[in-house]
């Protein structure tokens, strides 16, 4: 299934399920409430099987799939990105990276969905993107084994971890994380794709579950990045196991993968494209999911 949160022309917000290019309304205000209902996914499948006409995409506005997630953890799971970004600073690969799938918590209030303009961060001169895939937790768990962690995934979506690199450089000197370099905007969408929709792309199982899915970034239609989800070093089951150590993960919690190799200007260099500016449109595409599009304003 492809699941959405959308707003009608009457400004009514609702969860929905896609049938082709039409959206069938579900009796929940957002996907978060659907995930919090143990029978929510079953109810969505029942609606999908019915013959309701639903809305066309031009009749509604897609919102970020989980508008108010309990938490967002963003990981650092693609080795190519980590190594290349460190090399840009004249640093070797950090050995500790291979010991744990580290993450940071990011802001849950500044979220943007498909087609929503993203405000340029005031005071910054070095705006960047980060091309990521994210999973959304579908059922609660604590101390989850990596062997069964995939059962806790409700679905996958595209994530753009917008980054102000000049802010970030100052943040990181203080050794407390990205801070203001990251918390001004995160884009998610266009919808949540359930794992069964991606089964043909699965390349591993259990703790090693991965998918063969090309990941692209474009600016104003020009491709600047290309990678693949199956290049990830730490799988989502491994990330879930680590994130749930000593704490509960809850329905609606979001886990970002971190940047795929070549997925940002910090890595590929501003000779490929200058720091992003107002008026430019960023498209992130992941095979099997779709396209997440935002214009910088």
Descriptive key words:
four-stranded antiparallel β-sheet; Fumarylacetoacetate hydrolase, domain 2; 6 helices; 2 domains; twelve-stranded mixed β-sheet; 297 residues; alpha+beta; 20 strands; single chain
Write structural notes for this entry.
The chain folds into two domains: 2-62, no CATH class; 72-295, Fumarylacetoacetate hydrolase, domain 2 (Alpha-Beta Complex). Strand 19 (281-286) and strand 20 form a beta hairpin. The chain has six helices and 20 strands. The strands form four sheets. Strands 1, 2, 3, 4, 5, 6, 7, 8, 10, 12, 14 and 18 form a twelve-stranded mixed sheet that branches. It has a four-stranded antiparallel sheet with strand order 16-15-19-20, with no helix packed on it. The relative contact order is 0.20. It has helices spanning 31-36, 40-49, 79-88, 165-173, 236-243, 265-268, and strands spanning 2-7, 13-19, 22-25, 55-56, 61-62, 72-75, 103-105, 111-112, 127-128, 131-137, 141-142, 153-160, 163-164, 186-193, 214-219, 222-228, 248-249, 254-256, 281-286, 290-295.
What's the short version?
With 297 residues, this protein is α+β, with helices and mostly antiparallel strands.
Please give the CATH class of the largest domain.
Alpha Beta
Taken as a percent bin, the fraction of beta residues is: 25-35%
Cα separation of the termini = 32 Å
Radius of gyration: 18 Å
Q: What is the approximate shape?
A: globular
Elements, N to C (H/E): EEEHHEEEHEEEEEEEHEEEHEEHEE
Tally of structural domains: 2
Low-confidence regions? none
Number of strands: 20
- What is the helix content? 10-25%
**Judging by the overall fold, what is the CATH architecture of the largest domain?**
Alpha-Beta Complex
Report the CATH topology name of the largest domain: Fumarylacetoacetate hydrolase, domain 2
Q: Which sheet architecture does the biggest sheet show?
A: 12 strands, mixed
CATH superfamily membership of the largest domain: Fumarylacetoacetase-like, C-terminal domain
Structural class: alpha+beta
**Helical element count?**
6
- Mean pLDDT rating: 96
